[in-house]
Amino acid sequence: MRSHPRLASWLTVVLTGLLALFAVGAVHTAARQRADSPGPGALAAPVPAFKHIFVIVMENKAYENIIGNRRLPYLNSLAQQYGLATNYYAIRHPSLPNYLALTGGDTFGITSDCINCTVAQPNLVDQLEAAGRSWKAYMESMPGPCFVGDSGRLYRQKHNPFIYYDNIRENPARCNQIVPFTQFEADLRANTLPNFIWITPNMCNDIHDCSPPSGDTWLKTWIPKILGSPAWQDGGVLFITFDEGSSNNRRGCCRYATGDRIATLVISPLGKPAYQSPVAYDHYSLLRTIETAWGLPLLGRANDPSTAPMADFFTTPATSSPRDHSRRSSCWSPPSRGISSSTSWALPLGDSRGRLRDAARHVPTPGSIPGSEDRLRCVREE
Known about the structure:
Residues 21-45 and 317-382 have low confidence and may be disordered. The strands form two sheets. Strands 1, 2, 3, 4, 5, 6, 7, 8 and 9 form a nine-stranded mixed beta sheet that branches. A three-stranded antiparallel beta sheet has the order 10-12-11. It is built from 14 helices and twelve strands. The chain has helices spanning 5-36, 63-66, 73-81, 95-104, 124-130, 166-169, 172-175, 182-190, 212-227, 230-233, 283-293, 322-327, 353-362, 372-375; strands spanning 52-58, 83-89, 135-139, 178-180, 196-200, 236-242, 261-267, 275-277, 281-282, 328-330, 344-346, 377-381. By secondary structure, the protein is an alpha/beta fold.
């Protein structure tokens, strides 16, 4: 049979073109699949794995009595510089049920500031110790470690939730981790703070019995020391909250919260600067945030589907390890100080290689890319 060179050549060209189109389509499909698939940290916990967690509980003031109060200039400066939960509610009245909610995920039927009542229930200390995390509760004006009852006019047991749990109070090794606040400065100076640090100011400095300036002065004395410590600077977080407000206001929140809207600050080198969250939170949310950060089981109502962890306050990817935090620390500058020449700008770690290469070519600066104020992150390379 006679061959047709032109026909054979034409068929070769057509087949080659079809194969090329197929190859391009396959590459494009694979690229789309990679782009649409979640990144390595997409399914991880949304809260950083902090090295240290500080919790300070103040007393009996509603949100509107704290935020914007000119008699609390230092506390309000912290609220402006760091994170502020604008829709955070206490659980109920009076004080003690809120402290139990923060440490046990429930109020356990307690509706008063009882002294002789006890709780035989699992609690945050059980979780911390099971996970190998150290802890200590520092109580200002408490006479001595593991003290039971009230003392003088400045120390009240109702603000010490740990002493109510049977498996803490009746265990000397555990109970001796509830110490006077005088121990805090010694541990701070020696850089021997535990992983979890709870602080209860006395009845004057927590603004329960004294005027707001007394609490503001106390915070101005101690917060800079905390923020200057390696425990906070190396992947730490400080939560400042109030136990309850002064009414039964529950507008905007939550399934279990009837203790009034209260101010809660989230202060961390891993947090968004000058951030205000409108998300509905309560004390169970704070407990869930602690548990989520350290991969602990969720206690009680912290495990309720309506209870959200306070993840929106943080910028560092949840998959970052404490080792990562020690090598790359946040260097957000307060607005009044501006940006120093020693800082560099980088896109979030989750961006694709292509975008990182493109960023390197164009050398972006804050504001040069639409939305860059939200997506750029200031880091100091060590």
